[in-house]
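Problem 3 from the worked examples.
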Amino acid sequence: MSYGITVLAMVFIVSAGLGVPMGISMLTAGFAYMFAKHQDVGLVVDQTMNGLSNNYLLLSIPLFIFVAQLMNASGVTERLLAFAQATVGRFRGGLAHVNVVSNLIFSGMSGSAVADASGPGLIVSRMMMKNGRYPAGFAVTTSAVSATLGPLVPPSIPMIFYSVIAGASTSALFLAGIVPAVLTAGALMIGISIIAKRRNFPAEAAASWLQIIPLMFKALPALLMPGLLLGIIYSGIATPTEAAAIAASYALFLAFVFYRSLHINRLFSLIAETVGQTASIGLIMSGAFVFNYAVANEGIPVLLKTTLLNWHLTSVQFLLAVNLILILLAVIIDEVTILLVIVPVLTPIATALGIDLVHFGVIIMLNMMVGLVLPPHGLLLFVMTNLTETSLSDVFKEVPFFIGVLIIMLLLTTFIPDIALTLPVFFGYVPLGH
């Protein structure tokens, strides 16, 4: 190991271990590397800023964050929950099923697992814990696990990141996530049904069609959002970035004109929150660019690519190795860092082995889903326990079963690429025979 890469690793490990934000840790390590190697810091900063400012696709990220903020603040979430409760609440463990369905729908508007957890996930978990109807650990766990659907469901912010990293089609990735997301939601609901039957969890009162139809019409404008978004992208009317702007405009229309549930003063605070979250993401991406420059400058991607190709791995063996590596890394590193630092090293190897980058992207998203709820570092577990003031130990007892469900879906998608590629092939984004 060279002196430069030793400095990079040590500074990063120490910074992250001291609790320094991940973006600043990566920036600090990257700059320490360049000073150690006597390289021009200004040149790398210039390349980093150009990489951020010249990528049109990245503009969609703050717009989708803004959509999620609007939907949470304008009462749309409650309308979606009422509709979901009327349709699936009648099953045993009904509110846990509502959690999955509402998060699946809301993911089609927010693009963020954290937004899903702190929106519908938080509301449903509180409903579940009210009067002790469900154990707190189970309620919080189902909210966290349901929110993991966010990276798969378009418009997924992690998919946008991956598209920038791998050069894969964002439109193809959005299509590729739909079937795995629906199948994963179904698998989670089957798992909930098994637990609910064993533990005799309650079911909600069955709603009649006379009750469901008015709730559906109240929620319909919000339910149309994912279809509107995908329709304008795949019809060729707009690019994903332009579609994000249209989605934000539509969300503003719902909040101020259709539902009339948001005051102008609240809008300014939502814009400020969006700017704050976007700045945080920008800092992480800047750190990742500098960090990746150091890694590439040391020739690590080429060395790793040569080593793995010399092992003569098949594509499936490589994907299984990637799954294992990413899950192990998720125990100690957050998912955004893995996506921005580790995945750029892996995509050239996947290409060399003939693995479709759209399929590979879905594999990465499924790994991120596992990492979001994998103890001890699972981000969504900490988000939900903090919001609900629930003990982490109670959540850690409940989460292994659901991690098992997610891993099963990960392995199925690894061995059966058509789960991810059927829709991209059908719409012509991936060639037949891929």
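Problem 4, a separate protein:
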Amino acid sequence: MGEILLVALNARYRHTSLGLRYLQANLGELAARSRLIEFDLERTPEEMAELLLADSPRIVAISVQIWNVALVQPLVALLKLLAPGVVVVLGGPEVSHELEDQPLARLADFIVVGEGERAFARLCGSLLTGVWPPERILPAAPPELAGLLLPYDLYDARDLRERVIYVESSRGCPFGCAFCLSALERRVRLFPLEPFLAAMARLFERGARRFKFVDRTFNLGLDRALTILDFFLERLSPGLFLHFEMVADRLPEALLERLARFPEGVVQLELGIQSLDPEVLARIGRPRDTGLTLENLRRLLSGTRVHLHTDLIIGLPGEGLEGIAAGFDRLWGIGVQEIQVGILKRLKGTPLTAMTEEFALLFDPSPPFALLRHDRLDFATLRRLKRFARFWSLVGNSGRFRRSLPWLLGDSPFRRFLALSDWIHARVGRTHAIALPRLVALIREGAGEVLGLEGGEFARLLAHDAAMPGGGGGGEGGEGPPSRQRRHRRGPGMGGARLAEEGLAKPG
């Protein structure tokens, strides 16, 4: 039972809510009167409302994110209809800006805007003593991180065994990317390192082996990054998996040397490339030396055994199809294991909004607020590119087609895969619910019709890929790399450069 319910609607079961654990850890004496409840997006609003109201709560606090806002609104409406005396409190990035235009904001009793550890605790204290604050919208100043209680002891045994453990050693980002909320406060705040590492040690001793750091710029401070990496090097053990988001143009030799000490399958780096056009990067407020970025990717691939997950964003202001294709082809040629292709989305409150008129940006008004068109990409092209991104995830990033993929992509990777994507969609009319055997058959047939690949060595390699097991052990639970990364471990990176070293890239 809990008088205060902290409610997360995570995208998947294996995900966990770090933010709500922070709120619970910092409730003080009220923590004992609270309960954390996590759902995934498979739940209906009726199911969630039934489970929440069974606790007879006085306060229900819900974290609102871009991936769950469409479910939160009917859930809150049900709660207010069924139990109007229950106080509903909302927080999170989706209710931190542009509140006047949101029906969801009008349903809530209170909205905490910003980092809510202190503000939420004060609000609960007032409400449980019968004092109703006069204002519905409660701005929360960023708390001193040294004064916060760390939430990691709130991960329970099931979390450690089955789910991803999110951790953070810092908050904020110094860069001003127009599409990111971090651009609103361009500074980085650090958690004191000694208590943070002590908390990590307790997690490790309790059995945690999969740590996903949510720091936006983990490698911003070299000494600090090296200390944390050394902490885990001292604890190398079966099942350890570490995910860090790093800045690709800040990789000094000392950091590369440390990363090189980790065995294959232990470290994944997420590197936000976004675009390889310097003019586009400058326009969105993230100027970067693209030559240095590419060179650092090569150094990581040649000198370490880390898994590289790179991000490209389709639809950045001023970037058309040619620029997108050029950036994709350059990344593929280097040999990174994953190129995550995403469509630009409009997060409320970001500087991107100010660019709407100049670049004719039009976004879907429904979550996840993806770009529909701009002055360089029309709606039909964006639809094609969205399908490209989905099929690329199934084929390119999956790791299942490592041997046959270079033959599919040839010397014009983006254009060839876009043609294959168009063909598959024309044949099946959808991008989801395609079983692996059906996908393999579609690739075989489509490669013959639109890419001129029929039989021979390509057919042999595709059959070999299709016969490989799905990833081996561990699945998506709490130990070791996820299955997709496991598949990439069978050899060098997926891209043309590294596969050529293995003699697998298409001749010529």
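Solution to problem 4. The first helix runs from residue 18 to 25. Residues 155-501 form a domain with the pyruvate-formate lyase- activating enzyme fold (CATH 3.80.30.20).
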